[in-house]
Write the structure tokens for this entry.
Amino acid sequence: MSKKINKVVLAYSGGLDTSVILRWLQDAYDCEVVTFTADLGQGEELEPARKKAEMMGIKDIYVEDLREEFVRDYVFPVFRAGAIYEGTYLLGTSVARPLISKRQIEIARETGADAVAHGATGKGNDQVRFELAYYALEPNIKIIAPWREWDLNSRTKLIAYAEQHQIPVPKDKRGEAPFSQDANLLHISSEGKILEDPWVEPDYDLILTRMVTPMAAPDTPEEITIDFEHGNPVAVNGEKMSPATLLEKLNELGGRNGVGCIDIVENRFIGMKSRGVYETPGGTVLFHAHRAMESITLERGAMHTKDELMPRYAELIYNGFWFAPEREMLQAAIDHASERVTGTVRLKLYKGNVIITGRKSPHSLYDEAMVTFEEDDVYDQRDAAGFIRLNALRLRLLGREK
């Protein structure tokens, strides 16, 4: 707290934690606070956040709908890459942080603020994601991370501080929360408390918000189609939609068919392991459909190179390097490869499964005449003998030496 702060832009949800942070910033730094609340499709009414900020004396209040920008400029690029962290995680929280950070920095410039603040804890990944983005966009910005500074390290202390400063505390916040949730249009993450023991099965009836379990899903498969242009989904069942509307539709379709829930233990960037339950119904449908579209439109070399790049790309997103030059370089290569990824995928959703049933494209590299098991006049099977002998040459030489 040695740095003099005049004005700070706070990423503000209106919940207990960030409301306490708002007042703490005023007390600890004697500075003006600007609040920024982003609608990324978390499914909550955001006007209460505005009213709460007003009640706490805030003059500059930003409440913005960023859903379309979020899906178009952040979610879709990640799905063009087919990015998945450690084989399971579709990066739902990771991909949201760069947009929030970017807008915070923009607001800091608009309002003349010299600092930004976030509510991420000192144990998690989000502090890294926020702050790497802040520094990349505004190298000299001052950053305040209250959870690394204050002594309000328990819910009891947070509530006591809130009551002391006349900050309303909802009744459901007075007890110990059974787990923590973070939501946006791509996914909902649930972590902590009752989920901390990786041997204990999650109580899905308590946890799931956006979907049903596969066991509770309908007994009849639901068939849908998804149209792609240059690697991006543009229509569901033939109906053109904006990026955010399309993802909402896929959430609805995937959610009611039990698609997209994972229970994982992941490696956090800071070094510890974390267990979480993630709901990503629309993203899971999109991931499999996009892969099917690539299967007939990407040439083998491009597809395999893209698969080799993907783990590195996914790790960059997970670790918070969205604005790093290496992520932008990989994105350029991925987007170049995506130019031909156009066409339609047909699939069935059934009790947690995404079943591909068809794919077609004006740029398809699949040649039925070439691959047929019937008689053809486009491929001479005798050519394979020389191909095999040349590829076996080094193995034969090695075998002779042995």
Q: What stands out?
A: The first strand starts at residue 7 and ends at 11. The longest helix spans residues 300-319. The chain has a mean pLDDT of 94.
